[in-house]
Specification:
By secondary structure, this protein is α/β, with parallel strands linked by helices. It has 16 helices and seven strands. β6, α13 and β7 form a beta-alpha-beta unit. The longest helix has 30 residues.
């Protein structure tokens, strides 16, 4: 049993891969990740932009579809859906073996719709119908217009990965949407995960702490993201601990998913957002380099998050506020940056397809 497999077998945390491309599917790398212990995969416009723009594997299909009169954006969705379908087949055995707990592949709605509730619902339904596999999750951003989408899609039986969560307030709203959709229909089998972003929080807060420059502020660098994530896990326990004890793999439990867990600051430990966020009933989505690091040197006996850790996180949050950090503003800025980054990637890949045409 390697360290990646140990995350699930010993700690009940599911490692998912945060990358997808056609070459990974065709050359067997994605299957090798599954063999090594990966239990799901996520994608987003930035990942897909890199896959399509930097590869010639899509060129023949692009030319063929363009010859049929399809627009660059329609071609994008056809390419992406084909990859999602192929990858979903590789993960379906995990979905079946785990009774629907793992084995998912996520497909994000267009980032251009991030501020439009109605159009996001419409596209979420369309993508769910077109991919037509039970181990798909539709990724919806946790923007103010996006949160109402979550409950609507879940109530219609659509699995949802709620992405770009940067604040505890938004996370609580996402939790409420899941609980409401399942309480109103006891037979609802739809699943959702709440993707709480981690490392970007430290990147933003550390810059602000360095600008403040006091000893008290500088001593808090690299602590905000883990503290906030642990507080989020406390919210998870308050809402789902009973349901998880009754049926840990059931649809009533909305698992927390740690996103953006590669270490951005080279002076920090490369597994900072892995070893400090091990927790039962959670998911960690990992880029390839972080997976390699886990397999190579995950510390022996790395502890799961405890109640004491959550209490300490509350004190850390108080200290961060005391030195002048407005965490609500941090969350707002990061959400805006996240949406803009995905929109830019989406525009870039459409332009790249147009160039190939």
């Amino acid at each position: 049993m390697n360290n990646l497999q140990k995350l699930y077998q010993t700690y009940k945390q599911s490692p998912w891969l945060d990358n997808l491309s056609r070459d990974m599917i065709e050359d067997g790398r994605l299957q090798q990740f599954i063999n090594d212990g990966v239990r799901g995969v996520t994608s987003n416009p930035t990942i897909l932009e890199k896959a399509i723009s930097a590869s010639s594997l899509y060129d023949n299909q692009i030319h063929e579809l363009a010859g049929q009169g399809m627009s660059a954006e329609d071609i994008y969705w056809r390419l992406v859906i084909d990859d999602i379908k192929a990858a979903s087949e590789l993960f379906k055995p995990i979905w079946e073996e785990s009774n629907g707990l793992d084995g998912y592949i996520s497909l994000e709605v267009s980032p251009k719709l991030a501020r439009d509730t109605g159009l996001t619902i419409e596209q979420g339904r369309q993508l769910w119908k077109e991919v037509n596999t039970p181990n798909l999750m539709i990724k919806v951003p946790a923007t103010e217009p996006g949160i109402p989408v979550v409950g609507t899609l879940l109530s219609e039986g659509v699995n949802v990965n709620v992405t770009l969560i940067f604040s505890l307030d938004h996370y609580e709203q996402v939790v409420a949407a899941h609980i409401s959709s399942h309480q109103s229909d006891a037979n609802n089998k739809s699943r959702s995960v709440a993707s709480f972003f981690v490392s970007r929080v430290d990147t933003e807060v550390d810059q602000r702490l360095e600008a403040i420059g006091t000893d008290e502020a500088l001593a808090l660098r690299g602590k905000t993201a883990i503290a906030q994530a642990r507080l989020a896990y406390g919210i998870f326990l308050n809402n789902f601990a009973k349901a998880a004890a009754e049926d840990s793999s059931g649809p009533a439990v909305q698992r927390l998913l740690w996103a953006s867990t590669s270490t951005k600051n080279p002076s920090y430990d490369d597994l900072l957002y892995v070893t400090n966020l091990i927790a039962p009933h959670s998911i960690n989505t990992l880029p390839e380099a972080t997976i390699a690091g886990i397999i190579d040197h995950l510390p022996e006996g790395a502890p799961s998050i405890t109640v004491d850790d959550i209490r300490d996180a509350q004190e850390t949050f108080k200290a961060i506020a005391a030195v002048g950090i407005d965490i609500d503003d941090v969350s707002r800025v990061l959400e805006e940056q996240g949406v803009e980054k995905f929109q830019s990637s989406f525009d870039s890949v459409i332009a790249a397809i147009q160039t190939k045409i």
